[in-house]
Specification:
Elements (H helix, E strand, L loop, with lengths): L5 H22 L1 H8 L10 H26 L1 H6 L3 H25 L3 H26 L1
């Protein structure tokens, strides 16, 4: 097992945060607002609190993905670079998105909103994988 690249973890977190800003801003902000209404799903926190919590939770995800890549090792990843995307996208597709789908189904949240959020998690995790891939070069 190689060491965790903590700089890549931090930059990957920032990359996923950037994806979040674009995804829930210009790309799907209006569609999400149309689904949730102006009040959202209840109490709205201050924007800086939302940003801080989003950063902290994405940091947890990036840290675990960084640990996973360190566990695989730099030699294997250099020989099989597609693993960065297969592993990070696979986590989103096999764990995060199904969990989100189950939760949204139980809460009776619309399919449209579920697809918007599922797309975000897939793209965010792929951005994390891309960051690690680029920083390994």
């Amino acid at each position: 097992m190689g060491p965790v690249n903590w700089l890549a973890v931090l930059i990957a977190t920032l990359a996923a945060l950037a994806v979040s800003s674009v995804w829930y801003g210009p790309l799907f902000g209006r569609a999400r607002l149309a689904e949730l209404g102006p009040g959202g799903l209840g109490h709205r926190a201050a924007p800086w609190r939302t940003l801080a919590l989003t950063f902290a939770l994405l940091l947890v995800s990036s840290s675990m993905i960084g640990h996973m890549f360190a566990r695989v090792g730099p030699d294997t990843l250099a020989a099989k670079p597609w693993l960065y995307f297969m592993m990070s996208g696979g986590l989103a597709g096999a764990f995060v998105i199904p969990a989100l789908g189950i939760n949204y189904r139980n809460l009776r949240i619309s399919l449209r909103l579920a697809l918007i959020d599922a797309g975000f998690w897939l793209v965010a995790y792929l951005a994390i994988g891309l960051t690690f891939f680029l920083m390994a070069r």
